[in-house]
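stage 2 :: seqdesign
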């Protein structure tokens, strides 16, 4: 088992979850832009700053009395789901033993949780370790960040 303070345990797991969420969001962002290509610049902006949706031409069979086929120019971005994955809630179960506090800090001795640990009762325990479950939930952004974001998207 590895020794760690309770504070360091929460901090380390919290940072890891935030890093994972950021990686998911970055992947979603990059995936979205796959459906666009660089446009021919109409002004002095660099080409990579001007994007246009990739288009597919779809021919639909004619309907009605004239029977003429119709051509549609369809933006590919409109055909795919853009709902990103999100870590709304993360549960972490750990096997821990408390160690005599040093310097007023609760020290934990962490160990791997086994399948037997997860289903055992207090009577089944053969050591003085306990199972703790930490639940991290996604919070709403602070009011300041929410207002800045709201103002930034008004141009859309």
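stage 2 :: out
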């Amino acid at each position: 088992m590895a020794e760690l303070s309770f504070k360091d345990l929460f901090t380390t797991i919290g940072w890891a979850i935030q890093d994972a969420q950021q990686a998911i969001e970055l992947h979603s962002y990059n995936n979205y832009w796959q459906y666009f290509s660089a446009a021919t610049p109409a002004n002095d902006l660099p080409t990579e700053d001007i994007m246009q949706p990739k288009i597919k031409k779809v021919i639909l069979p004619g309907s009605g009395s004239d029977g003429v086929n119709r051509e549609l120019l369809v933006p590919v971005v409109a055909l795919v789901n853009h709902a990103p994955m999100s870590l709304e809630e993360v549960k972490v179960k750990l096997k821990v033993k408390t160690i005599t506090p040093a310097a007023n800090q609760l020290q934990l001795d962490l160990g791997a949780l086994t399948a037997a640990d997860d289903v055992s009762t207090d009577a089944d325990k053969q050591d003085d370790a306990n199972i703790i479950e930490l639940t991290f939930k996604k919070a709403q952004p602070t009011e300041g960040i929410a207002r800045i974001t709201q103002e930034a998207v008004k141009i859309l």
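stage 3 :: structure notes
- DSSP finds three helices and eight strands in the chain.
- The mean pLDDT is 79.
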